[in-house]
Specification:
Layout (H helix, E strand, L loop, with lengths): L3 E5 L5 H14 L11 H12 L4 E6 L2 E10 L9 E8 L8 H15 L4 E7 L3 H9 L3 E12 L2 E11 L10
Parallel strand pairs: 4-5
Antiparallel strand pairs: 1-2, 2-3, 3-4, 5-7, 6-7
Length: 173
């Protein structure tokens, strides 16, 4: 594995992150976005996430090669101890442990914030992502059938969950 460093994102990283994310939007069903967001919009998203959740990047080979972040799971107040999580890695860096390393740091930060549950939605089929999440202790919750339509096809989304901390660790939550 190449030498890597994981650190918190800054808004100045948005352009490099967007370069990783854009092909997933434009060429795959991994993201349900159908248009690549502009840099200003993407920067605003990064800033919005940072107001309440951790957002990390991985640097290797002289640049950013992956990122992971958490976001609000649902709007209602009782969900405040849960978060959705996502990880993206540049294809040429797949299989080098970057996704696992990013998620490990992210989960530690979420636990420190008092969160109990992390949820991930994976568009099917996506065996690499499913394997990554299961290797990190995620369990399947269920499938939302025909949840999205992209590139002329209806797509299912597999939802998985991971406990970040137990009730005993956070009995007040």
């Amino acid at each position: 594995m190449r030498m890597m460093q994981i650190r918190p994102v800054t808004p100045a990283d948005a352009e490099a992150i967007l370069r990783i994310y854009a092909p997933y939007v434009a060429n795959t069903c991994v993201s349900f976005e159908t248009q690549v967001p502009g840099l200003a919009e993407f920067t605003a998203r990064v800033e919005g996430i940072l107001r309440g959740y951790p957002f990390l990047v991985c640097e290797a080979g002289g640049g950013i090669v992956g990122f992971a972040y958490a976001s609000k799971h649902r709007e209602r107040a009782a969900y405040k101890y849960s978060a959705d999580v996502s990880v993206y890695v540049a294809p040429e860096y797949h299989g080098q442990g970057i996704g696992k390393a990013l998620y490990a740091e992210l989960f530690a930060l979420l636990k420190g914030q008092g969160l109990r549950m992390a949820y991930a939605g994976i568009v099917l089929p996506n065996e690499k992502s499913v394997c990554l999440h299961k290797a990190l202790g995620f369990n399947e919750v269920g499938v939302f059938h025909d949840a999205g339509y992209k590139f002329g096809q209806w797509l299912d989304v597999l939802w998985l969950e991971k406990m970040i901390c137990t009730k005993e660790e956070r009995p007040d939550h």
